[in-house]
Amino acid sequence: MTIDPIEQFQIKNLMPMISVGGHEIAFTNSALFMLIIVAAVSTLLIVATAPRALVPGRLQSVAELSYEFVANTLRSSTGTEGMKFFPFVFTLFMFVLFANLIGLIPYSFTVTSQLIVTATLALLVFVIVVGYGFWRHGLHFLMLFVPKGVPVYILPAIVVIEVLSFISRPVSHSVRLFANMLAGHITLQVFAGFIIMLAGFGVLGWFGAALPFIMVVMLTALELLVAFLQAYVFAILTCIYLNDAIHPGH
Amino acid sequence: MSDGARENGDRDNLKTDEAALSARLQRLGERLARDHAGRPSDGPGEDRATTASGYARGFRLSSELVAGVVVGAGLGWLIDRWLGISPWGLIVFLLLGFAAGVLNVMRSAGVVTGGAPDDGNPPPYPPPGAGEGKSMNPPPRAGAGREGEK
Q1: Which of A31, A103, A137, A223 could form a disulfide with A141 if both were Cys (CB 3.0 to 4.6 A apart)?
Q2: What is the pLDDT of residues A124-133, one digit of tens each?
Q3: Cβ <8 Å between A172 and B124
């Protein structure tokens, strides 16, 4: 028996297509899980902050910790001026974190293992950085591409390289999250497949199947770490990019 | 130290001068050490993030490099199509993209901090003159940084 490790990433249409202006809009399992994520984050934060206790309970301290965590990250990389972006960064962080964590539940769908989702998020950050940079600093924002102390005769090449480096940001920003999730889930699936294949060989196979089973348990723990880490990395990179929009000339 | 003519006569004076200087140097060293010790506490998570697993770090760096090369190649290809200068745009921009990828990797690894701080430990509050003050005189910069933190 074979198990297709890619099957878990298939997009399935859950509802009949609705045609809007010639475009077919499909409600897929990806969209369903995005709704679940948004609902879960909203419910957690609304329920947790409802008591407004001075001494926080368990749930409230979860909400407060996540607020403090993102606020500290943002403040340490962009300064107090960057705090106006807090709602944006917090939303991104919670969305990615919950997408990663919910994706770890068996039979669920990992939204962040789709490149189009992470690319959309990364492009959103990119557009906001460019838009805010030009709105706030005007053409001075372009000084971001002109590093100080570079001799004039190599400046054109350096500027082109800086621009390319800037454009490549959304690519690496999105691919990192996507590839981490994809690789992790494929690894889990492959090792889980080994268990079933070995268990098919009878009693001896059961003992053999214990090895990949231990591996799967350990990998799940690792994936839990990766889920948090990648959400954090996504958020801190957003902060660093926003910092460039706020303070372009170094 | 200040006047060489009286140097022979005032040995004690010179000694106190030297003592003061060494005391100042020591104080400077302490302050620098404190500032450097304080810096990781600004972004402890990132340090943990990079050292948590070599796998994650390697992944991060390789994605940076690949992103640079891919963007360079894509841009070169588009320029070729628009301007009809068939191989040249791709060749030039692939090389430039490779350079950009290497720059990305070096920034992300924290080897260079020029231009945009793309590494894990960005300055807490980038002061306007952070770039030029670095090599010349650290103490005022350190003082300014602490002021900003309060």
Answers
A1: A137
A2: 999 999 999 9
A3: no
For testing the chain A interface, which of B93, B105, B125, B150 should be mutated: the one with the most A CBs within 10 Å?
Answer: B125
Q: How far is A169 from chain B (nearest CA, A)?
A: 7
Task: State pLDDT tens for residues A173-201.
Answer: 898 899 889 988 999 988 888 888 888 88
Task: Please report, as a single letter, which amino acid is at residue B136.
Answer: M
The confidence score (pLDDT) of residue B13 equals 64
Over 50: is that where the pLDDT of B5 sits? no
Q: What CA–CA distance (Å, rounded) separates A97 from A183?
A: 17
pLDDT on residue A43: 93
Contact B68 A247 (CB under 8 A): no
CA–CA distance, B18 with B25 (Å, rounded to integer): 10
* pLDDT at residue number B129: 38
Chain-chain contact of B67 with A147 (C-beta, under 8 angstroms): no
Distances (CA, A) of A163 to B64, B82, B96, B100: 14, 19, 10, 8
Query: Do residues B40 and B48 touch, judged by C-beta distance below 8 A?
Result: no
Name B115's Cβ contacts closer than 8 Å, sequence gap at least 6.
A144, A145, A147, A162, A165, A250, B107
Kindly determine whether residue B67 and residue A162, on different chains, have CB atoms separated by under 8 Å. no
What size, in residues, is chain A? 250
Nearest 10 degrees: Cα torsion A198, A113, A104, A17: -100
Please state the domain extents for chain B.
Answer: 11-149
* pLDDT band at residue B116 under the 50/70/90 scheme: very low
- Sign of torsion over alpha carbons A166, A168, A170, A174: negative
